[in-house]
């Protein structure tokens, strides 16, 4: 019961942060006015205000997208750390992010983005999906998918695609700034169409993982024990890896590469509720949304009107946390 109440508290905190994020920016407004305008919109009252366009056309899509991306990264990070039994695993470990970055780089270099950001999003998703297929086929041994081979294949693909991106930036210096900005992550192109794509994916996969929490707990305790209990470890691992990677591909295609959320958030959730995936997944979902939205809000206001890449803010928090994890592991 205490954990449910705590989860409710974090969810309320997320809603408060949503309202706070709406009020800050180049054009600030009172939180009471923001809540009133949102309520009037919900009940169908016509609003003739410049703030309506600012809230509903610019800020709200961005806020919702930031929260969904953070939630998805948090859940997928918890899933990867559970099945790999590795606290250093994160959603980008299989090279999906670098594949998406290559797709986006192609769009930027050939100026396809001038025809609409949809081209960049589609190519980023295709790049991520190709990366997943390459890693999966390289690591596959018969019908088995050895964890160590999978991780090494992911590292190799990451290096390969990173070198392609570096060469593209050298050969096309005029596109370098835009490529770097995309690879550091941003929500400044957020739209309701992107939300309609990402929301079902993140919510359905997160709920599916929640329903499989027992299997996650058994696999996290060791493969031998899982086999003895009749759990089809290889089959479940393959399913989780593929499904998680599809979610990451969708996320990265709309937001760029936002680091450390999938690494940090599951650890923070474990400190609060323990290692049981029954509580770990919902807490990772909500805390991921809070952290991502909080970092994006800081990215908007720290050097306003200049906007920082949200990945730069997450890295400011994430890099010290990663060093702490390494130090803790060394002492253990």
Automatic annotation (TrEMBL):
Entry coiled-coil feature ranges: none
Gene Ontology terms for molecular function: transmembrane transporter activity
One of the record's GO cellular component terms: plasma membrane
Membrane topology: Multi-pass membrane protein
Annotated Gene3D superfamilies: ABC transporter involved in vitamin B12 uptake, BtuC
Classification via SUPFAM superfamilies: ABC transporter involved in vitamin B12 uptake, BtuC
GO biological process, one term: siderophore-iron import into cell
Assigned protein family: Belongs to the binding-protein-dependent transport system permease family. FecCD subfamily.
Protein name in UniProt: Corrinoid ABC transporter permease
Entry keywords, A to Z: Cell membrane, Membrane, Transmembrane, Transmembrane helix, Transport
Main location: membrane
UniProt-annotated location(s): Cell membrane
The keyword Acetylation belongs to this UniProt entry's keyword annotation: no
Keyword Ribonucleoprotein appears in the UniProt entry: no
